[in-house]
Amino acid sequence: MFIDRLLNQGAEPMLEETLRFSEARGRLIAENVANISTPGFKQKDLSVEKFQHLLADRAAQAEQSPPGSTAFDDIGLDVENTHRGILFHDGQNRSMEGLMSDMAKNALMHNLAIELLRRQFQTLEMAIKGQP
User: Fold this and answer.
1) What is the model's pLDDT at position 28?
2) Is the Cβ–Cβ distance between 32 and 85 less than 8 Å?
3) In Å, how far are 77, 82, 113 from 30, measured between CA atoms?
4) Distance CA 31, CA 54 (A)
5) What confidence tens digit (pLDDT) does each residue in 79-128 have?
6) 3-state DSSP call for residue 77?
């Protein structure tokens, strides 16, 4: 109980949810790349802006409630069809450059969340061991 509360009161829940989001988005981007030449395939994506807005709202809610009482793991991830770019004659809006750019941005977000989470756990481990 104490460990759960300790792990759920800082930035860890938000970082874990960011990892879940970036993993799901990475899978969708990879699916889009794999099907780039499939006629009629509509690209799908997760909205980074919507996710960040939902996460910010939940973080504000967590500040107003007791430590560890707000859950972050129920933030919905709604897959949507993208409508950006040129629409080709087969109805597809493919752009390999855009997909690679999205993949790179997503990988950076994922790596940043992993590094921040690793440092959080490293700090917790030092506190448990009694190291300064």
Assistant:
1) 93
2) no
3) 17, 14, 20
4) 25
5) 776 666 555 666 666 678 888 999 999 999 999 999 998 988 888 788 88
6) coil
